[in-house]
Design a protein that fits this description.
transmembrane; Protein YIP; globular; transmembrane helix; mainly alpha; Yip1_dom
Length: 244
């Protein structure tokens, strides 16, 4: 009843009495703009919407800051070209063997090289796809375990040897043997000339792969030691290309 009496005495407008009034400073409301996900002016910036339409749906357009699809799945064409060049010229490759290249575990190039090797053998009348991938898998597992034992654990290198790093190195350095199988399409390699070419291409692959692993494992004066099992590994593939 006191509410209505006070409201009536004030011209019909209710004014709370002192016993119901909030004390000053007891409750305050402040609104501050949120800067999360916004620019410098405090306003939220939303990404540009994707274009609509049938033609845009069939295109490869995406968000402006979205990385390319090949980069998301780990295929880097710059690394593929760089590692292929190193496999071609392992003597002058010390400057190109950066930590980023050594830690790359790309397998796109090795798969292409193994397919080319099997295709060239097929054109020469030899079907060895099962042997190729079987020897490649068994040899990669064996050489990876051996390389882990030989690695310098006390080194301060930021790169660490992983299985796919070993597979990538062995696969890229397999490229010279593809030329050996290509020569086998046009002429027989089961002669002295073929044996000589086999030694050259096996030595080429061994020199390339040992340069990679020597830099990755931080070996000092042990390149010949790691090159010996690599030479045996690549010699098996050379025997596939030479003998019928």
């Amino acid at each position: 009843m006191s509410f209505y009496n006070q409201g009536a005495s004030n011209g019909g407008f209710y004014q709370p009495s002192s016993q119901f009034a909030f004390p000053q400073g007891s409750m305050s409301f402040q609104s501050q703009p949120s800067n999360a996900g916004s620019g410098n002016d405090g306003m939220t910036v939303s990404p540009d919407p994707l274009p609509v339409g049938i033609l845009n749906a069939l295109s490869t357009k995406g968000f402006p800051h979205e990385p390319p699809l090949l980069e998301e799945i780990g295929i880097n064409f710059d690394h593929i070209i760089t590692k292929t060049k190193i496999a071609f010229n392992p003597v002058n490759s010390k400057g190109a063997l950066s930590d980023e290249i050594l830690s790359d575990s790309d397998l796109a190039g090795p798969l292409i090289f193994f397919l080319l090797f099997g295709l060239f053998l097929l054109l020469a009348g030899r079907v060895h796809f099962g042997y190729i991938y079987g020897v490649a898998l068994f040899g990669t597992v064996s050489l990876h375990g051996l390389s882990k034992f030989m690695s310098n654990n006390e080194s301060s290198s930021p790169t660490k040897l992983q299985f796919f790093n070993t597979a990538s190195i062995l696969g890229y350095c397999f490229l010279p043997l593809c030329f050996l199988s290509l020569i086998g399409i046009f002429c027989s390699l089961d002669n002295k000339v073929g044996y000589f070419l086999g030694v050259i291409f096996v030595s080429w692959s061994t020199l390339s792969s040992s340069a990679f692993l020597n830099s990755l494992l931080q070996l000092h004066g042990a390149r010949a030691l790691i090159a010996y099992p690599l030479m045996i590994y690549y010699s098996v593939f050379a025997l596939m290309a030479i003998f019928v």
